[in-house]
Give the backbone structure.
Amino acid sequence: MQVLEKNRGEIEAKASRMSDFLKMEYLEEVSKKFSDVEILRYCYSELSKLYEKNIMYPESIKYIEKFQEVCISQREKMQAYTREIELLIKGGYYDRVNFAYNKILEVATPKEIYEIENKIILMYKSEGEKFEKTNKNALALKVYERLAKAPAVKDPEKQEIKKKLLVLYKKLGKVRESLELERELGRSR
């Protein structure tokens, strides 16, 4: 696809008249052609949103990471890191969440870290509930096992999560795990 536009306004105007997949192709070409930070920020941000909208999480994550590289302010970086974590959770890349979380620790204040930890817990919970509602029990189990091990989760919440884990273990026929968890829950009462 040929890129004849010379500034962000012209690029936005042309992109607004395109379907999602054409827009993706066009913005990728624009990002290759230009080195202007404002144009790159626009392209990477839009590409990440478009790929997420079309449930293409690996590509969305790739572009949010590129967006982080061209972010100017700390606040913008924080939002991009939080967004990356959200995409990683939605995409099921739970192992990479800790790496993204460590990036936040480098730039955030203690108050912001506390708020982000709570957001991450809520993201995991909503993902687990979504899987439960659609009877994707194995996926819900992975999410709740992560939550049960998370240090930021408080005890009352951990008990609720463990109860959900117990139900999922029984549904999935994981007898040993369910018996161990029943004993653990019995001791904590």
